[in-house]
Design a protein that fits this description.
Layout lengths: L6 H24 L9 E4 L10 E5 L2 E4 L1 H4 L4 E4 L13 E6 L3 E2 L11 E10 L13 E8 L31 E7 L15 E6 L6 E4 L7 E10 L4 E8 L1 E2 L2 E2 L5 E6 L2 H4 L3 E9 L6 E11 L27 H43 L9 H9 L2 E2 L2 H7 L8 E5 L2 E8 L4 E8 L5 H14 L10 E7 L2 E7 L6 H6 L7 H21 L3 E3 L8 E3 L5 E3 L6 E3 L5 E3 L12 H6 L1 E3 H17 L4 E4 L5 E4 H11 L16 H14 L10 H8 L33
Parallel strand pairs: 19-23
Antiparallel strand pairs: 1-18, 2-5, 3-4, 4-18, 5-17, 6-17, 7-12, 7-18, 8-9, 8-17, 9-10, 10-11, 12-13, 13-16, 14-15, 20-21, 21-22, 22-24, 23-24, 25-28, 26-27, 29-30, 31-32
GO molecular function: ATP binding; carbohydrate binding; protein serine/threonine kinase activity
GO cellular component, one term: plasma membrane
Keywords: ATP-binding, Cell membrane, Glycoprotein, Kinase, Lectin, Membrane, Nucleotide-binding, Receptor, Serine/threonine-protein kinase, Signal, Transferase, Transmembrane, Transmembrane helix
């Protein structure tokens, strides 16, 4: 009948409505919470309890050895280590099984990362020993998921690619690698002066830069630290030698660096890991420990999409069963209405229960250190006040882009104005749906800084924890951070201003380390966290990585080292032990920056991507008696010579490679304030005395105690 829908069409529309209500109902009941991928992991060995999220490809395999650490620890053989001894023509990969975000297409932000790993390269005696070793291994970043090249690839590719030497990888096959090459292959233009070299590869196994090592250096127990800085785009590697075939090796560390924009050569998400290969020349490649930390917060997984409503099937015209169709439609409508009413009632009750559960979780959210709930302490009146979410939204003009002051690893900072208090503030907004690491930083910052009171610390005014948002409210420090004035378009800092900043930062650390009831280890001392008020007085901020240590303990072993490349105590990266001495190291680096206005690491333009290291450079000048050459040229020699010498000497003293030779912050401040004797330092920068974990490999490597 014209103008009337066929009964089957109406019925299917009603069924679609039922499916709509059902999908909404089920989605509200069962939709999982977004899950964020961890960005920091630390495997001290690869025993049965340390194999989570580790992916093996090719000939890679876990190998248990109780004698390695005494606790059932183990390692990963990256290339073959077969019982029958046939380890030639082997390829393997070991990688983190989850994607690691390298850059964010929405914000343009690129990650900084630090990774440290200990490993063994061991040419077995039964296969010719060092006279038949090859081909090498590499740390890599590549498209996710990791894909081991197919069988038949050349050994000189080190398990990185299937391409020939003259090809450049594209698409999902792109990679960046730091290689530990033990066989000089002329096909890929390896250095031919010796057998061993380090290299940086970008989408090709023909290295962009190399460092030739003495032959047989890459044998035995070693530790490497690879860092990438998103500001300078420098990929830097430091190799520390442990035990070799003849026992401990006391050689200087080897350094290699290359400037590369990872955003332009790699996809947004990458796999990180290790690859290795052998040919007729053979060796074992064993990963003993691995730490990795990135500054870029991953995005939460999107919620599942509700299934679409079913489409009505085609009809064959109007039928004559009007009464039956009407009865069917009426019954279906009754079912829909009944179901909808039940669904609405259940949804309302469910949402009410979930709201109460969220409020209960917020009120009872335990701190990771199990030392009391900082939020409860604040609500009980012992700390800053709680702000309503809408107050902070209004204060920042709905977090307008023009109010944004900066961006950090776990969120952004906005300028705000609290009308009721008539107060300008800085509001730190953590990324929505922050991972556990982001929430830990938020809670750590509340727990630590809300209880501290010092003129050289940024004051926490309040906080907000609700609506899936984490916000901290600080006093607004008008002259922003120290790095803006050292390297950006800020105010030129005269020498008296620089001395005032140095003394203020030292005073803040003295309070944190020795004058408060517990020792507060900041763990991220750097110019971008040194804020300057209207008179350019120091205000140390960002306590997201801070930890409390009892004065009697002194040292705390962390699950993973944290901080910023160039400022992290090198020993802390390898041993994982954080202490007041770790902060003192970072303080020393900042002192040298204030004097020299040079970053702790940068590329040397005239030395084929050689790496400039501020501490080493200043120490060389100190040994030559040319310490004044380190001063910022913009000062135009307008500084107090004695003060400048004191600041440099204290900076080197604090950045001593051996933490046992560093001063306490109190001793350093006595010298800076001219009330203590100048430190006596060696003319040459000492070699670090700490050592990485040492393993025994089939009786061919010595063990250390």
């Amino acid at each position: 009948m014209a103008g009337v829908l066929p009964a089957t069409t109406t019925t299917y529309n009603i069924v679609g409505l039922i499916f709509f209500f059902f999908s909404v109902f089920c989605d509200d009941l069962y939709s999982p919470a977004p899950v964020a991928v961890a960005l920091t992991f630390n495997h001290t060995n690869f025993g049965p309890d340390e194999q989570t999220n580790i992916r093996l490809e090719g000939d890679a395999a876990f190998s248990a050895d109780v004698s390695f650490s005494g606790d059932g620890g183990g390692w990963v053989d990256i290339s073959a280590n077969r019982l029958d001894g046939s380890i030639d023509h082997s390829r393997g990969r070991v990688s983190y099984a989850l994607p690691v975000p390298l850059w964010d297409a929405a914000t343009g932000e690129v990650a900084s990362f630090t990774t440290g790993f200990s490993f063994v390269i061991n040419p077995p005696k039964q296969d010719g020993g060092i006279n038949n070793k090859g081909a090498g291994m590499a740390f890599f970043l590549a498209g996710f998921p990791s894909r081991l090249p197919s069988a038949g690839s050349y050994a000189y590719n080190l398990g990185l690619t299937n391409q020939t030497a003259d090809q450049v990888a594209a698409g999902d096959d792109r990679f960046v690698a730091v290689e530990f090459d033990t066989f000089n292959d002329t096909i890929v233009h390896d250095p031919d002066a010796t057998y061993d070299h380090l290299g940086v590869d970008v989408n090709s196994v023909v290295s962009k830069t190399t460092l030739t090592l003495p032959s047989f250096t890459l044998v035995g127990n070693m530790t490497a630290v690879v860092e990438y800085d998103n500001v300078s785009s420098i990929l830097a590697m430091r190799l520390h030698l442990g035990y070799g075939l003849s026992g401990p090796r006391h050689r200087p560390d080897y350094n290699l660096s290359y400037k590369v924009d990872l955003k332009s050569v790699l996809p947004e998400q990458v796999a990180v890991g290790f690859s290795a290969a052998t040919s007729t020349s053979v060796e074992l490649h064993q990963l003993r420990s691995w730490y990795f930390s990135s500054s870029l917060e991953p995005k939460a997984a999107p919620p599942p999409v509700a299934p679409p409503s079913p489409s009505p099937p085609p009809t064959s015209g109007s039928g004559s069963g009007g009464v039956v169709a009407g009865a069917t439609v009426g019954a279906a409508l009754f079912v829909v209405l009944l179901f909808a009413m039940v669904a609405v009632v259940v949804l309302v009750r469910r949402r009410h229960q979930r709201k109460k559960m969220r409020e209960a979780e917020e009120a009872n959210d335990d701190d990771d250190d199990t030392e009391g709930d900082p939020i409860m302490e604040i609500e009980n009146g012992t700390g800053p006040r709680r702000f309503a979410y809408h107050v902070l939204v209004n204060a920042t003009k709905s977090f307008a882009a023009e109010e944004k002051l900066g961006q950090g690893g776990f969120g952004a900072v906005y300028r705000g104005y609290l009308r009721e208090q008539g107060l300008a503030v800085a509001i730190k907004r953590f990324i929505k749906d922050s991972s556990n690491q982001g929430r830990r930083e938020y809670k750590s910052e509340i727990k630590v800084i809300s209880r501290l009171r010092h003129r050289n610390l940024v004051q926490l005014i309040g906080w907000c924890h609700g609506r899936n948002e984490l916000l901290l409210v600080y006093e607004l420090v008008p002259n922003r951070s120290l790095d803006v004035h050292l390297y950006g378009n800020g105010t030129f800092l005269t020498w008296p201003m620089r001395i005032n900043i140095v003394i203020g930062l030292g005073s803040a650390l003295l309070y944190l380390h020795e004058e408060w009831e517990q020792c507060v280890v900041h763990r991220d001392i750097k110019p971008s966290n040194v804020m300057l008020d209207e008179s350019f007085n120091t205000k140390l901020g960002d306590f997201g990585l801070a930890r409390l240590i009892d004065h009697a303990d002194g040292v705390q072993t962390m699950t993973h080292p944290s901080g910023t490349p160039g400022y992290i105590d090198p020993e802390c990266v390898i041993t994982g032990k954080a202490s007041a001495e770790s902060d003192v190291y970072s303080f020393g680096v900042v002192l040298l920056e204030v004097v020299c206005a040079r970053r702790p690491m940068s590329l040397l333009d005239d030395q084929n991507n050689g790496l400039f290291r501020l501490v080493e450079w200043v120490w060389d000048l100190y040994g030559q008696g040319a310490i004044h050459n380190a001063a910022d040229k913009q000062l135009n020699n307008d500084y107090d010579v004695v003060e400048m010498e004191r600041v440099v000497a204290v900076g080197l003293w604090c950045a001593h490679p051996d933490r046992c030779q560093r001063p306490s912050i109190r001793a350093a401040m006595m010298v800076l304030r001219s009330s203590g004797p100048m430190p006596m330092l060696p003319a040459r920068m000492p070699v670090a005395t700490y050592a990485p974990p040492v393993a025994s490999s089939e009786g061919q490597l010595s063990s250390s105690t």
